[in-house]
Amino acid sequence: MLTNRIFWILFLFFFFKPCIAEESLDAIKPKMDFSFALELMGGISYNLNEDNYNSKKLGITPSVRILWMPDNRLNFGFETSYLLLRKTDKEKNKQVLKGRLEAVPVLLLFNMNVLAIDLTFGLGVSYMQSTINAYNVTSIANQWHYCFNFGAGFSFKISSRLDSGIEGKIYSLTKTDELISTAYLKFRYHFLY
Length: 193
Prior knowledge:
Structural class: mainly beta
Strand order of the largest sheet: 1-2-3-5-6-7-8-9
Shape: elongated
Oligomer: single chain
């Protein structure tokens, strides 16, 4: 019986607390129809797939995101980033083999803030480039592939227009079965309208 009471007390507390908090914030915040935000992110990426060449799979990853933020929870935008999928340098019989696989995804992004956590999902294409240098001959191949990402992050206000935070994402490049995890430090600037 005591557990039922505790359950109902906690349920009512968590159910009504966000409603009260949103009402008090709505009274303070000026009413606007929408805004735009520019996010600059930088961090590291790691390719989760195994390979036979013991290649370097850790890279530095910059990213840019533009969001349209209407006056509701769901935001829309575009995102692009640079991903180093793998890089290898091998030497055998005094011959050097160098290889590099890179991707630049361009995604339509859906972003939602739920309980102070930014949830993102992106769907789009990725420009992939493979560069191989073997026996002093360089070969370059380019292709476009479908890709998507999903992630979660947290941000806090520095000023009325500037936010800072962290974000973790997983990119999936479908054609080559690449799965890349990323960790970002991000800055968001709001263009208020």
